[in-house]
Amino acid sequence: xxxxxxxxxxxxxxxxxxxxxxxxxxxxLVMSDAFNGQGEALTVCYLEGLIDSRRLEQTLVLYxxxxxxxxxxxxxxxxxxxxxxxxCLVSGMTVLLFTEPAYGVAIDTLGVQLRNVExxxxxxxxxxxxxxxxxxxxxxxxxxxxxxxxxxxxxxxRKVGYLSKTTxxxxxxxxxxxxxxxxxxxxxxxxxxxxxxxxxxxxEEWITDNRxxxxxxxxxxxxxxxxxxxxxxxxxxxxxxxxxxALLLPFVFLQAxxxxxxxxxxxxxxxxxxxxxxxxxxxxxxxxxxxxxxVTFHHELVPTPLLQSIAAAKEPVPxxxxxxxxxxxLAFEIMREAGIRMPKQVGQAVSIVGALILGQAAVQAxxxxxxxxxxxxxxxxxxxxxxxxxxxxxxxxxxxxxTFLASLLGYVGITVGIIMLLTYLASLRSFxxxxxxxxxxxxxxxxxxxxxxxxxxSKNRRPSLFRAINLNRNRGKTR
Amino acid sequence: MERRITISNIQxxxxxxxxxxxxxxxxxxxxxxxxAERNSWFLVLAGGAVGLLNLYVxxxxxxxxxxxxxxxxxxxxxxxxxxxxxxxGFIFYFLDITSWVLREFSQxxxxxxxxxxxxxxxxxxxxxxxxxxxxHGLEVFARVTEIVFFITVATLLTIYLxxxxxxxxxxLFPVLEEGMIKPLSGLxxxxxxxxDMMCVSMVLQHVRKTKRTMAYATWAIGIxxxxxxxxxxxxxxxxxxxxxxxxxxxxxxxxxNIKLFRNIERFDAGLVAVxxxxxxxxxxxxxxxAVQGLKDMLRIRKPRLFLIPLACGFFLCSKYKVWGLIELAxxxxxxxxxxxxxxxxxxxxxxxxxxMRRDSHKRRVSS
Lengths: 479, 367
Description:
Number of helices of chain A: 14
Oligomer: heterodimer
Strand content of chain B: under 5%
Order of helices and strands of chain B: HHHHHHHHHHHEEHHHH
Strand order of the largest sheet of chain A: 5-6-8-9-7
Helix content of chain A: 40-55%
């Protein structure tokens, strides 16, 4: 069993020396000798700061009195090698080392200050659940189990990263999740050979189908309710220790326009909001391109009164439309990035600079036309309707490409761009599921389910898109 | 070993419909009106009937050889020499059609949209777009075809619907005043448009066959006929047969008659989208068919290496093929037999030979 492991010795000082050597002589390692009630010698080892000292004290007092280690046991097997001991120490356990026979016992005493459960900042809702994930994996699992207390929910732990040994959890639902996709997830996780996994994005990049694409092929969310909804659709969730984001897979393109709040509103409202997001995604991607194409090539297609006002507004501007548009959009992106990075106290400065200088003053100085400011503002706002964890950065990048094509070939360029984009999207797959599904390959009932939020009473089938095993939602009753 | 490529019935239907209506419905009314005046709808129906027959020829061939495409069937039936020559003919035809459609694609923009941008730009954009799709293969562009199909059908229907209050049904009368035979003089050209779906001969082996494959294919011809009929009828009912005849792209004039809320007009942008998308599908599928044919014929291991040289070839061919739209249209009109023979006559001949060989084989087995 222990091929190249160092076995614990019967000598206390030798054990301490081995431990110190293995841990590079780190100075936060505490090793103190003690005796229990029976007079047996033992060494208490832990990493200072990583443990909850009150919890350790209680456990130790109980142990000294009864020689029983009943509370807070995670590993009930005994430790026999230095490596096992150090692995326990770095994950926040306290190890009691005994001699004659030489073995160690680990007690879970992890005590790290973590964030409380808060409203997820990237996926805020007006109505619906307000809890979001934190950095603690077990806490996140508890949040999911709390929302979905079903015996069929299965959690599989894996350790990845040969140095960090980060714990990740793969969640699936027995009787719903397709075993083939689950097997594929495990196979891909097994291929990870990085030294340390620092966040869910590392996992995402390793297990994605296509590493060369900027489109998200795996969804990430901060919301337990979204994870539960996805699990019930036959999808798989991957949670990573230390990251408040769960990965959901497979993921198809149109899901980027869904948010979990859709299910908290009346279904007409929910559906309308979905369509609205789709529309604003399209506007966000294409509006500057349309403006550039129209102003540069297709004046005749604009109603005359509108054309007159566009021409009057554009008259003092010395740049071609494409330069104007790219500059404005770039300015917008810079302001958005600055708004995120800036300390909150100086945040107001960005809005003042943005509104007054880049908007009004630029127009008055004749650098940009007022219509361009409207176009840039509308485009920017439209992209913000999409959940930021998914598609909206991609759409912003595409915006520039489309504008470039429009400046070369007008409407033809835009259509060519759309076609190439569609071709590209059609070539993508997420864990074997076509990325453009259910539009292409076409499936009417699935498509209505994606575009429209169905009433809960008539949602009696699971989507077949993710190859769920049991498609029937309400047991026994069919209506 | 290559992974088996499969496409669905709906994708097959979209492919058939888009390759036949997508481009031709834009200028069909003018050409047909030249032959049959106000009775061009009759010509469309007749063309549709022949088109259906044409489709069944391919379906039948496919049923006899379910895992062979047209090129392989040729080689199998006629032996390596004669079959090889016929197969080469087909491949040449695929290549030729690709460059025709590419030229047609760019010509439309120069005439109907914007003469400022040089033709080369349009040609390059078209070639690059299709090259990219062929690079990704049949499965991918079949999926795009589905989306294009819905967009195209919806746009065309919207155009015809918005003009509803401007139609003059009396322009259609008298019906067939010169009998049913005379208008058929334009049957060849009408057939050649429906025959553009002959690319299915290369695609059919990849369709995931179900009981309803036949029905879907038939429906595709049905949809094509209906849409073509609508385009012809609405042009005739709006302009009358004689005016329709004078237009280059009657549907562009048709769309310019749409006016919403007094000020909103010129929906040409929608037409541009339809035209680009359908031309894209048509060029891509023939490009793909040519590459596939070359691959089977010459046993090429890595057909992807041939894509870029072929694309450059298409660009040059399209550029110097004809000097302008008039020559292009005349060729389509007068030399329709060239298209129809590859679309219909030679495949029918192949089917005939296949049937005879099967009969003689059966007789040999039974005796």
